[in-house]
Amino acid sequence: MSKKVLVIGEAREGSLRNVTFEAIAAANIVSDGGEVVGVLCGDGDLSALGQEMVYYGAEKVITVSNPELKTYTSDGYAQAVMEVINDESPEGIIMGHTAVGKDLTPKLASRLESGLISDATEVVAEGGNIVFTRPIYSGKAFEKKEITDGLVFATIRPNNIPSLERDEALTGQVTEKEVSITNIRTIIQDVIRKSSDGVDLSEAKVIVAGGRGVKSAEGFEPLNDLAEVLGGTVGASRGACDAGYCDYSLQIGQTGKVVTPDLYIACGISGAIQHLAGMSNSKVIVAINKDPEANIFNVADYGIVGDLFDVVPKLVDEIKQM
Ligand code: FAD
Questions:
Q1: Where is the Electron transfer flavoprotein alpha/beta-subunit N-terminal domain (predicted)?
Q2: What is the pLDDT of residues 177-189, one digit of tens each?
Q3: How far is the CA of 237 from the centre of ligand 1 (A)?
Q4: What residues form the annotated binding site for FAD?
C-alpha cells in the first residue's frame, strides 16, 4: 500500500551528508509509489540543499531555518521536525543511523508513541510488505523486521543502501517553514573537530585502519600515505587509541564508530571481537599482520602476513604506478 514517507535530511558544513540520499532511496522503497517528503533543519538559506534532495528523489522538501538550529540539539531539532510531522502526517519516517539520527529518532518515536527499527542495512519490498534487515549481536547475525501496523519508522546505516541517480530533470517543491524554537536545554559552546581530514569515517568508501601494531603516532604515516593514494581516510582500533597513537575520534568498533566502507585495510590489528563489531560488514577486508594466527584473518577477504612497515610502503608505491 502506498505511503507518504518523510526523510529527515542531514547537512554538515554546507553540504548534505550522503546518507540523506540513501535515506531518500530507502524511503522510495517504503513509500511503494507514494510520496517522499524531505525535511531539512539548519540556519540560513537551505533552499539549494533542499533542491539537491529533490534531484535525488524527494518530491517535496520542507526546510526549517532558524538560528537555534545552526548546530544540532535534540530539543531544537525535535521541535522543528515534530512540527513538520504534524503538518504532513507521514506514514513512514526514515533517517540515517548517524550520531544525530541515533539521538533524534528515539526521541521522536517516543513522542509519536511509535516503534523504531534502528540501523537497517537493507530495505526490500517483499510480497507487499516492507522488510528491513538489521545486524544483531554486534554484527554476528542479521534479523529481518517488518512493521505490520502503524508508523514505519527506521534509521538506515550509512553506505549500505545505494542512493538513486542524481537527476536534475526531477522537479519538486522546496518550501520554507517557520518554526519558533523554545526551551533548548543544551547550550553548544563550541564544536571541535578532531578528525584530521574532515572525512567522516562512517561515510568513507576506503578506510586504512591502524592498530597497536603501528607502535607510535609516527607509525600512522605510511597508513596516511596509503589512505591518500586510495582516496580514503584513516581509522584505528581502540588499542591504538588507548596507546595514544591517535585520537579517539578515529576509533572503530563496539564502543567506537561502525563503518561499512567498500574497502577496509586493517594494519597491525589483531581482530578482537569488539573491533570486528565495527567493521566486519565492510565490503572487502584486507588484513596486514605479522601473526598468521591473528583473528583478523578470519574475517579478511585478502590477508598479507608480514610487517606493515614493509608491506604498506610497497602497496603505496605500486598503487602510485597504476
Ligand atoms: P592488539 O590486540 O595488541 O593487536 C596488535 C596486532 O598488531 C597483533 O595482532 C600483532 O600481531 C600485530 N602487529 C604488531 N606489529 C606488527 C607489524 N609491525 N606489522 C604487522 N602487524 C603487527 N577495540 C576496538 O578496536 N574498538 C572498540 O570499539 C573496542 N571496544 C571495546 C569495548 C570493551 C567493553 C572492551 C572490553 C574492549 C574493547 N575494545 C575495542 C578493545 C579490544 O578488546 C582490543 O583490546 C583491541 O581491539 C586491540 O587493539 P589492536 O588489535 O590494535 O591491538
A1: 5-196
A2: 999 999 899 988 8
A3: 6
A4: 212, 237-238, 251-255, 268-275, 289
Which amino acid is residue 303, in one-letter code?
G
Q: Which atom of ligand 1 is nearest to the CA of 212?
A: 52
DSSP-based three-state secondary structure for 4: coil
Indicate if ligand 1 lies below 6 Å from the C-beta of 211. yes
284 DSSP β-pair partners? 263
Ligand 1 pocket test: which of 215, 220, 238 has the largest number of ligand atoms within 8 Å of its C-beta? Answer: 238
Cα 146 to Cα 135: distance, rounded to the nearest angstrom: 14
The ipTM value here is: 0.99
Q: How far is CA 270 from the centre of its chain?
A: 25
> Is any atom of ligand 1 closer than 6 Å to the C-beta of 237?
yes
- The Å distance, Cα 153 to ligand 1 centre, comes to 36
CB 262 within 8 A of CB 234: no
Contact assessment for residue 294 and residue 270, using Cβ atoms and an 8 Å cutoff:
yes
- Distance, first Cα to last Cα, the chain: 50
- Per residue in 25-66, pLDDT (tens digit) is 999 999 999 999 999 999 999 999 999 999 999 999 999 999
